[in-house]
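Annual report, structural modelling task.

Input specification for the 2-phosphoglycolic acid complex:
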Amino acid sequence: MARRLLIAGNWKLHKTVEEAVALAGDIASGLVRDDLDVLVIPGFLALEPVALSLSASSVLVGGQNLFWEDQGAYTGEVSGPFLKAAGARYVLVGHSERREYFGETERTCRLRVEAALRSGLLPILCVGETQAEREGGQTEGVLESQLAGALAGFDAAQAANITIAYEPVWAIGTGLTASEAQANEAHSHIRAWLGARFNKDVANSTRILYGGSVKPANAAGLMNQPEVDGALVGGASLSAESFLGIIQAA
Ligand code: PGA
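The model returned the following structure:
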């Protein structure tokens, strides 16, 4: 089954509302391809203005995180229904920066995936090993335990709505990129795990994105790998020129 590519830009803690709307406009007006999906993931404050500004465009909008309760006395949190109402279609779960700086665990990733699905959002579950784990030969074991923990208890129908992003921690924001072969191998392992845990259809249809220092210069090689179904781009998504360059190269 041919999987449609998804190129996502995670703007992290960058871009004020005004800057975000301007960037979204530049991306939408420069986008010439309609054979792949394009997603921008602004900070929460900019999400609704960006979504409104993109309403006539095919560019989709996502959130960077969500809380697992829908509403209540949870000061400082943002939930799935609020993201959905603001125009989000996707939401990141378990980005390595959430795991490293904000105490994200497999249990909390699972709660967030469940909340996203309940709200009608499409979760993008981020997994990936550290440099030490890769050097210690633990890559596959780490990926398996992150997937097993975050997807515990879900059935194949739920899994069909989940996108996976393989983001080796050592490649995020460092300028180091997994080689094409390393990315393809990790993706292939994730796909095999999905097949064993759910079924062949889930394995074949799930999009597995690569993230970690994706740039216009390396995008074509990575996206040409058979198991790579798109990219989750950080730094290079902050300018329309480089993000559109990645989209063109994909
Ligand atoms: P990077 O970030 O492209 O800046 O390495 C990727 C990510 O964190 O999603």
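The mean pLDDT is 97.
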